């Protein structure tokens, strides 16, 4: 399936990070909006499957279809740019600055949020027939998840906040591996398989993904979730975003960059002695 070596795809990671920083604001917003919307649809899809089958594993197995679609289309998630763009700065790519990275993160965040909120409203509207009836079993499941993953953490105070942060780290360790998976092959099937595995793992394990949560919690609030916007921000979105940043960069970006890009040019083949 046209597998690339680690040195090859690690260099592609740096190239990708540099190109995202140089991208226009319009393109950044469009790509981020579509990524947030598609991932939100995938989350709704997985929750629907889980409710209808009673098997969370089936939902987790099928959730990555959204991630695969959005990356094959070249769209961007905040979790991915968290990992890729700092590598371009470390590699001293021309024109790459800290301000440029922060600008990219800001626009991608807003685009992802816009896409996720759009789908959250549409799903809530569909499940309630224009807010004229109750949300039903699927809407109730979404609302219960929102409460459990905000107030459920709040019960434990700082320990709960740190738990979300670490779940965010583990999440973007896996999600950023999925981003890298899109680069390890030049074939569609190879890319899809490489992306599928880590995304399925993070979803089934219940790790915290900031963009999925941009859909999950607002839609829960729309459909009567028993928690506040402040609960969502402080007891989920903020620690999740910080955990996603730390985990993706530390566990995936820096490790691959350090061992496959930084040390690559220093490698020399040892010549056998002449007899």
Automatic annotation (TrEMBL):
GO cellular component terms listed in the entry, alphabetical order: plasma membrane
InterPro entries: Aquaporin-like, For/NO2_transpt
Entry's Gene Ontology molecular function annotations: formate transmembrane transporter activity
Segments crossing the lipid bilayer: 29-51, 57-84, 105-131, 158-184, 196-221, 241-259
Entry membrane topology: Multi-pass membrane protein
The UniProt record lists the keyword Translocase: no
Gene3D superfamilies documented for this protein: Glycerol uptake facilitator protein (1.20.1080.10)
Predominant cellular place of this UniProt entry's protein: membrane
Locations listed in the record: Membrane
Pfam family, one: Form_Nir_trans
Keywords: Membrane, Transmembrane, Transmembrane helix
PANTHER family reported in the protein's UniProt record: FORMATE TRANSPORTER-RELATED, FORMATE_NITRATE FAMILY TRANSPORTER (EUROFUNG)
Family designation: Belongs to the FNT transporter (TC 1.A.16) family.
Record-given protein name: Putative formate transporter 1
């Amino acid at each position: 399936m046209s597998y690339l070596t680690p040195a090859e795809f690690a260099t592609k990671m740096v190239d990708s990070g540099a190109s995202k920083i140089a991208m226009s604001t319009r393109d950044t917003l469009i790509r981020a909006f579509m990524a947030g919307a598609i991932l939100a649809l995938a989350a709704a899809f997985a929750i629907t499957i889980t409710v209808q089958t009673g098997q969370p594993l089936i939902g987790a197995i099928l959730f990555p279809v959204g991630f695969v679609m959005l990356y094959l289309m070249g769209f961007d998630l905040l979790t991915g740019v968290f990992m890729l763009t700092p590598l371009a700065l470390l590699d001293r790519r021309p024109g790459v600055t800290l301000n440029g990275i922060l600008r990219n993160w800001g626009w991608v965040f807003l685009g992802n949020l816009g896409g996720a909120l759009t789908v959250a409203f549409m799903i809530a509207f569909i499940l309630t027939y224009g807010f004229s009836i109750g949300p039903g079993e699927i809407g109730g499941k979404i609302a219960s998840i929102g409460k459990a993953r905000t107030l459920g953490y709040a019960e434990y105070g700082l320990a709960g906040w740190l738990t979300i942060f670490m779940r965010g780290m583990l999440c973007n360790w896996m999600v950023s591996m999925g981003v890298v998976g899109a680069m390890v092959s030049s074939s569609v099937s190879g890319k899809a398989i490489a992306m599928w595995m880590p995304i399925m793992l993070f979803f089934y394990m219940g790790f915290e993904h900031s963009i999925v949560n941009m859909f999950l919690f607002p839609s829960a609030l729309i459909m009567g979730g028993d928690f506040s916007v402040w609960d969502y921000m402080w007891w989920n979105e903020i620690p999740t975003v910080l955990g996603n940043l730390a985990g993706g960069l530390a566990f995936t970006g820096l490790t691959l960059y350090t061992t496959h890009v930084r040390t690559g040019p220093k490698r020399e083949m040892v010549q056998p002695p002449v007899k």
